[in-house]
Amino acid sequence: MTTATQALMPLAEVYQDLHRNPELSFQETRTAGIIAERLRHLGYETTTGVGGTGVVGLLRNGDGPTALLRADMDALPVLEKTGLAYASTVTGKAPGGNDVPVMHACGHDVHVTCLLGAAGVLAAERASWAGTLMLVFQPAEELAGGAQAMIDDGLFGRFGAPDVVLGQHVAPFPAGMLAAQPGVAFAAADSLTIRLIGRGAHGSRPETSVDPIVLAAATVLRLQTIVSREVAGSEAAVLTIGAIRAGTAGNIIPKRPNLN
CA angle, 141 as apex, 30 and 12 as ends, to 5°? Predict the structure, then answer.
């Protein structure tokens, strides 16, 4: 299927196509091509390769504010087991070079489809609004680096500073419901790596070691009390330990595990 054909596909088919063909962070070349072709078909000034694989579409409609609408494009290294007819069977290369299964497990295929749908509606209804519409399709949200990459590539200098920025995200609400609230709706995120350094020994002589795996286990449990005991009940916070890496053999206490 050519991108020109995809530009004319109904949105449900666009979504299924994106879901069937997910791409990892900073590898969203196929997705970006579909987006760009559809935006050009709708009459948007379209630029690709912003911040790596990002796409920007501009629709100028007279004097007025500039509104930026944003969607993310990347998928996750997750094996899909949904049984859907359009389920992903794609594999990709993780940053470390390993082959991994790939799935749109965080809804970015929905985000792209919704923004393309909005692009079509707003292009068709230009008599009802005035100003400039800036559509930003961001790469690498899952690595927390795609937005900064687009900014570093001159997003606002090249395309203009928006007066308002509108984002979206799917959530476990009933179908057809839109949810909005004043103030913070979704959290910002910070990631960090903790390295615990102990003293290695044979597993039969733990008394001669400083076991960093035990330290790591205690650290994980202690970190979980930050939300339950140090964040007010009126506030929301999530703390997740996503990976622990330690040791190379079952009978050796290592010196340096990594707690991620």
Answer: 50
10 φψ region: left (φ > 0), alpha (ψ -120 to 50), beta (else): beta
Q: What is the CATH number of the domain that holds 102?
A: 3.40.630.10
Beta partners for 60?
A: 132
- Domain span holding position 136: 3-166
Residues 110 and 212 in one domain: no
Residues ≥6 apart with Cβ < 8 Å to 19: 84, 86, 87, 88, 104, 109
Whether 203 and 123 map to the same domain: the answer is no
User: Of 166, 182, 203, which one is at a domain's C-terminal end?
Assistant: 166
Strand partners for 70: 136
**Given the DSSP bridges, would you call strands 66-72 and 131-138 parallel, antiparallel or unpaired?**
parallel
pLDDT score of 6 more than 80? no
Q: State the average pLDDT over residues 131-150.
A: 96
Could you tell me how many residues make up the chain? 260
**Residue 153 has what DSSP assignment?**
T
What letter would DSSP give residue 190?
-
Question: Which tens digits make up the pLDDT trace of 190-239?
Answer: 888 899 999 999 999 999 999 999 999 999 999 999 999 999 988 888 99
Which residue in the block uniquely carries the two structure tokens 């990976």?
Answer: 243
- Do 170 and 217 contact (CB within 8 A), yes or no? no
Q: ∠ at Cα 41 (70, 145), nearest 5°?
A: 25
- Stretch (H or E) spanning 148: helix 146-152
Phi, psi of 59 (to 5 degrees): -130, 110
Q: What is the number of other CB atoms lying within 10 angstroms of the CB of residue 78?
A: 15
Q: Which residues are catalytic?
A: 74, 141
CB of 213 closer than 8 Å to CB of 256 = no
